[in-house]
Specification:
about 50% strand; transmembrane beta strand; transmembrane; siderophore uptake transmembrane transporter activity; iron transport; about 140 residues; six-stranded antiparallel sheet; mainly beta; two-stranded antiparallel sheet
């Protein structure tokens, strides 16, 4: 049995792409090939927990994992771009109408190829990104 953790939220998403019917039909060279840059599946899981009492009241912590599956790297489907996993994190402080948040994407600074359009046209995913944000709600 799970402990009762007040305010804990867990979100999940999966996007299985059934590409068995998605094929090129108008290009005579690549007929029946799968489209490029479309991952075969994607998955994300995120959890966050606002602390609701004690000396840390108003603090919110969160974290998540994102997985993007393999995709084809060229129109002829001659090579695949491998899937990859990235971690994200959040630390925030909420006080009255103010919120100070620090978001980190690609926490482990994983370097991977995100997509290709041809054997000479590949792109890396974003490196670790840290964003601080102060907001006020009227």
């Amino acid at each position: 049995m799970f402990p009762n953790v007040s305010g804990l939220a867990v979100f999940g998403q999966t996007i299985p792409n059934d590409l068995s019917d998605a094929v090129v039909t108008k290009d005579p060279v690549n007929v029946d090939k799968a489209p490029i840059t479309v991952s075969l599946n994607r998955f994300a899981l995120w959890t966050d927990h606002p602390l609701q009492g004690g000396p840390l009241k108003g603090v919110q912590i969160g974290g998540g994992v994102r997985y993007t599956g393999a995709s084809w790297g060229d129109e002829g489907n001659t090579f695949r771009v491998e899937g990859a996993t990235a971690l994200d994190a959040l630390v925030a402080y909420n006080y009255e109408n103010y919120r100070l948040a620090l978001n980190v994407t690609n926490l482990a600074d994983t370097r991977y190829v995100a997509s290709c359009y041809a054997s000479f046209g590949c792109f890396y995913a974003d490196v670790r990104k840290v964003v601080a944000k102060l907001t006020y709600r009227w």
